[in-house]
């Protein structure tokens, strides 16, 4: 059941009326596929009456009645339900109980390779036809059509929008062909192998070496220690069709398969389709018996015990010069299938409260200037291989032993002494608000997420529960939330069979395994100084922002029922009270000048502001006091520096929105300037900087925006040298005037009492002093574009020698005046993206990394870019440039085909339709409209701008941006190598079928 936490900015052909976009209350008037019971077989294997659904066997957790369960004679199990979020979408999941832990020694990587092959060719899909087939159904690759291979399973995921009878039938047909009858030929294996090897190459480098070391150390003696889903070079290169077929026959069988479907359709029709397409499926040959994943056990010769008395097992010290220090130790226990009862879940909640108490204390120690940057305790069941409690922290200096002692002393206090009831009540209040919020949001929970929840439950061998059941269980066990029981559960979290640890350091000789063992064996002092006062702070006790403001104007904005309210101090608010998302409110505050506000001297303080501005407090409240203020409430405080504006954003509840407005207004009206958050942010920046050099992707993250803006210092990642000059005083000097500068716009979208919020706005934002104007020289700042050269800029990384990246960027535009053109550019970039995938995927070994995207700043008149990039082998960098140039020039010279366009515009149109059912879509598209009326006018054509075009328009835009403008080229190659020349036949890089980008679950997720 897992009660807890196991529990693009936006020429047109036609106007789109607002009726196309109006939010739909979830589950209301769900659209039926054009299918009837006579056309789709009635399900024969539904579990009904007194029969316990297969997911709930041996459990007393109340069955979620929204789901219908079935188990067919061939052993295949399924779960289906109606869900109208988003409207007219159906989410299908096919889970096969076979992952990397099911592989034999010589089969490492086969589960993942097989996942690729199922997309490559199957009964109803010829070679390289998958991407086009799903796009024609309206699915966006990488999000709507995807798959994952983990140590314990392989899951295929499909979200089909704008569903009707034909699409639904076609989707099940195609999926059944993939799952039941893939074409596992030698030709297909040979074609997919380089793609998988490319994925493996892209995952290499320092971070992967640490992940491998961690896996080998923590799971020593278990299958998980040596089995990464990506496999090994040797096993992948040795794979052949008969071997893959053998793996498929052993594991891809109906009795190993679960199908989950949630969507805007009659669940009986969904169940009938599952049975129609999978009911006669039979496995080939003998079924395999699942292997024993093994238990964590101490080495036989272990004589040393940790301070807790547990034997110390495998230890490792990894030296990575470009990674910050990090130490993790784990208390390991065997994983066993649980009886998923209410009592068991009550125990999980007690565990969660215990961990939350410790983590709050650890965070308090870090905030106060401790010896570590961060620390966290987390219990985790890893891949049905271990039940472990992980302790992870980042020492600030080479004195890792002092940091270890500090962290363990806080934990030892939690193990030795019971918490106060007030502390427990504080954490319980945090969980209460989460569970209540889930109940409030149950009617708008996306079908895709519900389907994923069932897949996860099957994977961990537990059940699912409705949000109401979770809340009821929580409220029914509150008498167990007492100091004695929390202390008992805390102690059990640190009991186990063996302690293991990994320390990563940039310095050779800083630590050895023996020294790590001695440090873990030392007696631990009990330190309760990190305990926090548990009392809450009431908003009623806080001072007023200022004299209440006066409303000078209230009027409709002119779209939907959004209202604009203006105050005499210049603050403008956009309000839309609606019940599309029950109980949920999004608040965003836009103010100031964004990146425009910084110059060369103050540029370093921009990213530090994103890390430290909120933490530096407000009024008389520091970060700890703000945390107490938020107890039992759903409040947020996300801060971002954008192109031309600063933003505060929060997802809150109807009952908390008034308090949320006070917090945001107080940050502007009475900011506080605590030094510790700035010092901590500075340390984090210094420790992280070298990590960018460990891979081509890291260099891209560090330098791409800086280079594209002609080395504008505002967009540089601060180096340790730049950070050295940072002080808390300098931080305040840079930021204090910016909080007073520029107009303020407040957007409140969601379910709230309109009159109450208008009055709260009058008392908060309306009470702010008049804003200072943005100076003309700041308002005029627009990022430049470098003078392009025919030769690429070359940067070096310190990662693996077979990794490289290539980027080509064209200047585009910006501003709302041409926003409709930017929407059409999104179609053009998707066309480009499809072609680049097809050109590079196989022959250039680029896996799924090639991508093309457009950035169009709406708040600036210029500064936009179109970028194509890929990660690949160094020898293929010149080929990338040639292929990107060739595609760009061909798009400029020749119009695309109608089919090409349809494969892009249909998914884009469906993406807009689905997104438009939520408040955040409207907020995103209307922000700034209180001072810029064209944002409303040009919203009317948004759907058609993204989903309707002509080949001629695409050619026109390609000629404008690709045919007449010299791009910036950037190559990132391994240190010590030189950029090679492109081969003469570079233009002959083969067309390859593209597949969705997929990300595998991390083996050790903490």
From TrEMBL:
It comes from the Bacteria. Pfam families: Peptidase_M16, Peptidase_M16_C. Keywords: Hydrolase, Metalloprotease, Protease, Signal, Zinc. Residues 995-1006 have a biased composition (Basic and acidic residues). Residues 86-221 form the Peptidase M16 N-terminal domain. Belongs to the peptidase M16 family. This is Insulinase family protein. It comes from Erythrobacter rubeus. The lineage of its organism: Bacteria, Pseudomonadati, Pseudomonadota, Alphaproteobacteria, Sphingomonadales.
């Amino acid at each position: 059941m897992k009660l807890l936490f196991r529990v693009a900015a936006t020429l047109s052909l036609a106007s789109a009326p607002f009726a196309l976009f109006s939010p739909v209350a979830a589950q209301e008037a769900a659209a039926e596929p054009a299918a009837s019971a006579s056309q789709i077989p009635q399900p024969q294997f539904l579990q009904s009456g007194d029969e316990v659904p297969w997911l709930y066997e041996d459990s007393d957790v109340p069955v979620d009645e929204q789901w219908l369960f079935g188990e067919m004679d061939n052993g295949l199990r399924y779960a289906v339900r109606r869900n109208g979020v988003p409207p007219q979408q159906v989410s299908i999941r096919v889970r096969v109980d076979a992952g990397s832990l099911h592989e034999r020694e010589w089969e490492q990587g086969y589960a993942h390779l097989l996942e690729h092959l199922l997309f490559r060719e199957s009964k109803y899909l010829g070679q390289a036809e998958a991407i086009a087939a799903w796009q024609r159904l309206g699915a966006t690759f990488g999000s709507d059509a995807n798959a994952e291979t983990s140590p314990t399973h392989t899951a295929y995921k499909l979200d089909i929008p704008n569903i009707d009878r034909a699409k639904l039938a076609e989707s099940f047909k195609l999926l059944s062909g993939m799952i039941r009858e893939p074409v596992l030929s030698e030709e297909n294996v040979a074609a997919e192998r380089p793609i998988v090897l490319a994925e493996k190459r892209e995952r290499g480098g320092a971070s992967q070496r640490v992940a491998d070391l961690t896996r080998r150390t923590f799971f020593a003696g278990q299958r998980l220690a040596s089995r990464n889903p990506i496999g090994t070079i040797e096993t992948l290169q040795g794979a052949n069709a008969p071997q893959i077929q053998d793996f498929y026959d052993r594991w891809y069988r109906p009795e190993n398969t679960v199908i989950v479907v949630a969507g805007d359709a009659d669940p009986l029709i969904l169940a009938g389709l599952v049975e129609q397409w999978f009911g006669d499926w039979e496995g080939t040959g003998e079924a395999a018996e699942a292997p024993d994943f093994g238990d964590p056990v101490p080495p036989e010769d272990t004589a040393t015990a940790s301070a807790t008395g547990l034997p110390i097992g495998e230890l490792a010290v990894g030296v990575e010069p470009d990674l910050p220090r990090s130490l993790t130790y784990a208390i390991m226990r065997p994983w066993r299938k649980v009886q998923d009862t209410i009592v068991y879940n009550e125990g999980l909640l007690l565990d969660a409260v215990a961990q939350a108490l410790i983590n709050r204390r650890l965070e308090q120690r870090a905030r106060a200037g401790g010896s570590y940057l961060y620390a966290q305790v987390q219990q985790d069941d890893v891949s049905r291989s271990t039940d472990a409690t992980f302790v992870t922290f980042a020492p600030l200096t080479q004195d890792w032993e002092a940091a270890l002692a500090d962290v363990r002393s806080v934990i030892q206090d939690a193990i030795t002494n019971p918490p106060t009831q007030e502390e427990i009540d504080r954490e319980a209040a945090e969980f209460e608000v989460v569970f209540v919020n889930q109940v409030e949001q149950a009617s708008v929970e996306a079908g895709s997420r519900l389907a994923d929840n069932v897949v996860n439950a099957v994977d961990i061998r537990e059940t699912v529960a409705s949000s109401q059941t979770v809340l009821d269980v929580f409220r029914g066990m509150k008498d167990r939330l007492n100091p004695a029981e929390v202390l008992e559960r805390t102690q059990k979290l640190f009991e186990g069979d063996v302690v293991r640890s990994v320390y990563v350091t940039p310095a050779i000789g800083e630590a050895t395994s023996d020294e790590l063992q001695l440090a873990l064996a030392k007696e631990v002092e009990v330190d309760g100084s990190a305990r926090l006062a548990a009392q809450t702070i009431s908003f009623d006790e806080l001072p007023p922002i200022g004299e209440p403001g006066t409303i000078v104007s209230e009027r409709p904005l002119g779209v939907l029922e959004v209202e604009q309210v203006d105050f005499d101090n210049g603050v403008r608010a956009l309000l839309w009270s609606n019940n599309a998302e029950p109980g949920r409110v999004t608040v965003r505050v836009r103010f100031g000048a964004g990146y425009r506000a910084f110059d060369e001297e103050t540029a370093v303080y921009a990213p530090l502001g994103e890390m430290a501005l909120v933490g530096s407090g407000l009024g008389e409240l520091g970060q700890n006091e703000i945390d107490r203020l938020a107890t039992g409430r759903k409040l947020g405080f996300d801060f971002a520096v954008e192109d031309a504006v600063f933003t505060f954003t929060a997802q809150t509840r109807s009952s908390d929105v008034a308090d949320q407005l006070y917090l945001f207004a107080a940050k502007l009206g009475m900011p506080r300037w605590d030094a510790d958050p700035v010092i901590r942010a500075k340390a984090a920046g210094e420790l992280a900087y070298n990590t960018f050099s460990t891979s081509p992707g890291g260099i891209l993250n560090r330098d791409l925006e800086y280079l594209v803006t002609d080395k504008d210092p505002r967009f540089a990642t601060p180096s340790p040298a730049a950070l050295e000059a940072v002080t808390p005083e300098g931080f305040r000097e840079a930021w204090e005037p910016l909080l007073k500068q520029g107009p303020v716009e407040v957007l409140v979208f969601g379910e709230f009492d309109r009159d109450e919020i208008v009055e709260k706005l009058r008392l908060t934002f309306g009470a702010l002093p008049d804003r200072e104007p943005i100076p003309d020289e700041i308002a005029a700042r627009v990022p430049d574009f470098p003078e392009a050269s025919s030769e690429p800029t070359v940067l070096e990384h310190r990662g693996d020698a077979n990794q490289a990246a290539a980027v080509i960027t064209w200047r585009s535009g910006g501003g709302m005046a041409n926003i409709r053109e930017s929407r059409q550019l999104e179609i053009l970039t998707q066309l480009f993206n499809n072609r680049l995938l097809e050109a590079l995927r196989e022959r250039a070994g680029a896996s799924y990394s090639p991508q093309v995207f457009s950035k169009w700043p709406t708040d600036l008149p210029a500064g936009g870019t179109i970028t194509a990039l890929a990660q690949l082998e160094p020898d293929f960098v010149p080929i990338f440039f040639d292929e990107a140039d060739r595609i760009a020039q061909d798009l400029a010279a020749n119009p695309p085909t109608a089919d090409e366009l349809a494969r892009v515009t249909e998914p884009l149109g469906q993406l807009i339709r689905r997104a438009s059912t939520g408040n955040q879509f409207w907020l995103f598209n209307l922000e700034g409209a209180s001072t810029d009326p064209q944002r409303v006018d040009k919203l009317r054509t948004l759907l058609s701008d993204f989903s309707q075009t002509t080949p001629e328009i695409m050619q026109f835009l390609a000629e404008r941006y690709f045919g007449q403008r010299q791009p910036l080229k950037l190559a990132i190659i391994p240190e010590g190598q030189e950029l090679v020349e492109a081969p003469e036949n570079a233009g002959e890089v083969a067309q390859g079928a593209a597949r969705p980008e997929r990300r595998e679950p991390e083996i050790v997720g903490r």
